[in-house]
Amino acid sequence: MKEIISERLAGIKELSCRILQYRCEVKNTESRNREKFIYRAMQLHLNLSDDQIAQFDHFEELLMEWNEVMNLTRITDDEDVINRHFIDSLCLIKADSYLEVPMDGSTSVLDMGTGGGFPGIPLKIMYPDIRIVLVDSLEKRVRFVQRVIDELMLRDAQVIHSRAEDFGRSTGRRESFDLCVSRAVAALPVLAEYTLPYLKIGGQAVYYKGMEIEEEINSARRAFTLLGGKYPVHTVKYLLPDTDIGRSLVVVNKVAETPVYYPRKAGTPERVPISG
Description:
Blueprint (H helix, E strand, L loop, with lengths): L1 H42 L6 H18 L10 H13 L17 E5 L7 H7 L4 E6 L2 H13 L5 E5 L2 H8 L5 E7 L4 H8 L3 E12 L3 H6 L1 H6 L7 E6 L6 E8 L14 H4 L5
Parallel strand pairs: 1-2, 1-4, 2-3, 4-5
Antiparallel strand pairs: 5-7, 6-7
């Protein structure tokens, strides 16, 4: 009997050691990933406070938790979340030389097609004074983003369930935003119709795109000018820090009112994009 008890105690001790080792490995991995995130933000000349780092940590926890029951993102590796979601969103600063709107409380921001909250939530964490509205057409994603807003206690942040084409009619927010951002939503001719009607004259749209963007920009020339945007546009190309992943930011200035019949009814911009 004593031998059996000793064997069981030894087994429990070994299991406890393995659990402790696993927890240490997880903690060390989390610490390394946090350090990488801070370092890569510094490469963008962004200094994160302890509170902001904690908010990003909690955002990632919520993203992974909710992603187990709904398809919010295909990106689930910790380092990829840091690079392809958080840092990618914060790369708005790469367009700083072209941005004419301050990232403070005087600026209203629209994130059209926010999905899992990108780039809008990272931008709100980084620039807590901006007033931001995040729009998505899928209710489950809207519920998730609302949970993030609540748990991170983000002030002046609102998420709305709407298609891009219907947003202005349902909220009366045409020609009212200073800055519109959009990431991985649609081709530029379509995206222009989804976003430019909601910018005030003097506002700007920033589209997050891949590296090879010239042909897409050319295809959107008529859409930009028809909808009140200035052409030619500004383009910023870069690599995500410590990676070979190429990105572009396309910056469009709003210089004229958008004709009242744009955006067209739901589904039309994608089915019959403005071209030529």
